[in-house]
Inverse folding.
């Protein structure tokens, strides 16, 4: 794994540079805002948090949640020191509403976004959302109920479990939960649930005018030509990105 240069996070953000960012969708996009509920409705244009994820993707900042929490803790302490003369510098954790913890939100702002679209279609499709529930509460055992596959070697043992008193074709929930706790490593790490998700399919592009810290822009300009394999919304929403100085 190559070394990640996160030194920009030690720098006080200065949004003193203006650039044009053009995003051309290469596939249907589903850009879902925070706390979507049971229906994943797409935004018509990417928001700031999505652009932050895009920039981190271009820079190769594929950092897991545990490491991000450590970075945010250190960054919060650093910003507190830097904010003694300027309270606006205090770091605000923008994780709320999703598991994504953005790190570069303070280093750019969207001034204007213009969709340049010749054709657009919205449609719904089913999307598999991955879940992980290792806990067993009372008679509830969501993880083993959600998985379609298990290690074939434990199937004979599972067939011997106590049956549900109301439905002999089903395993008793409590027995299933205890069986799962005993055989966690023989179950898939995740189970999936079909979720209705809205997509936008368009011919055209988004044109952003953004104010940005010059150091972040230099990083992006350097990385974009060789790391322009980006996506928005989810991993299926492939896009092409271009930067232009104003």
């Amino acid at each position: 794994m190559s070394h990640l240069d996160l030194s920009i996070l030690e720098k006080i953000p200065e949004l003193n540079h203006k650039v044009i960012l053009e995003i051309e969708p290469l596939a249907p996009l589903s850009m879902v805002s925070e706390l979507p509920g049971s229906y994943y409705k797409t935004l018509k244009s990417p928001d700031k948090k999505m652009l932050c994820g895009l920039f981190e993707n271009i820079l190769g900042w594929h950092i897991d949640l545990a490491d991000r929490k450590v970075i945010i803790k250190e960054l919060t302490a650093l910003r507190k020191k830097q904010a003694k003369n300027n309270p606006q510098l205090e770091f605000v954790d923008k994780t709320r509403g999703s598991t994504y913890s953005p790190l570069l939100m303070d280093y750019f702002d969207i001034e204007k976004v213009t969709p340049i679209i010749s054709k657009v279609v919205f449609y719904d499709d089913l999307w598999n959302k991955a879940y992980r529930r290792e806990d067993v509460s009372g008679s509830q055992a969501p993880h083993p109920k959600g998985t379609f596959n298990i290690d074939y070697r434990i199937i004979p043992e599972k067939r011997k479990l106590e049956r549900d008193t109301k439905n002999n074709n089903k395993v008793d929930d409590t027995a299933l939960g205890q069986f799962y706790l005993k055989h966690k490593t023989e179950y898939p790490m995740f189970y999936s649930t079909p979720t209705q998700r809205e997509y936008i399919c368009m011919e055209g592009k988004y044109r952003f005018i953004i104010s940005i810290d010059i150091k972040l822009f230099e990083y992006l300009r350097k990385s974009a030509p060789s790391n322009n394999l980006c996506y928005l919304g989810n991993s299926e929403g492939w896009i092409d990105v271009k930067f232009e100085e104003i």
